[in-house]
Design a protein that fits this description.
InterPro entries: DUF1508 (IPR010879), UPF0339_domain (IPR051141), YegP-like_sf (IPR036913). It comes from Streptacidiphilus alkalitolerans. This is YegP family protein. The chain is α+β, with helices and mostly antiparallel strands. The protein has a single domain, classed as 2-Layer Sandwich (Double Stranded RNA Binding Domain). Helices cover 29% and strands 27% of the residues. It has a 3-stranded antiparallel sheet, with helices on one face. The radius of gyration is 13 Å and the shape is globular. The N and C termini lie far apart (36 Å).
C-alpha cells in the first residue's frame, strides 16, 4: 500500500481528511469542512504546500 489521503464524514457530519503513510499510520489530520469537495481541496492544498516545505526547528 502506498501513502494516501482518506476523506471521511465525521460524527458532526463535517468532512475531514487524514494522510496515511504506506504502513497505515496516520501522519496528518486536516480540519473540518462543510463539504466533501472542500476536504478534497484541503488534500490538494497539503500536497502543494508539502512539496515546497522546509523543515525548521521550533523556537
Amino acid at each position: 500500500m502506498s501513502a494516501h489521503f482518506e476523506v471521511y464524514e465525521d460524527k458532526a457530519h463535517q468532512w475531514r481528511f487524514r494522510l496515511k503513510a504506506a504502513n497505515g499510520e496516520t501522519v496528518a489530520v486536516g480540519e473540518s469542512y462543510p463539504t466533501k469537495a472542500g476536504a478534497e481541496k484541503g488534500c490538494d492544498a497539503v500536497k502543494r504546500a508539502a512539496a515546497e516545505a522546509d523543515i525548521k526547528q521550533a523556537a
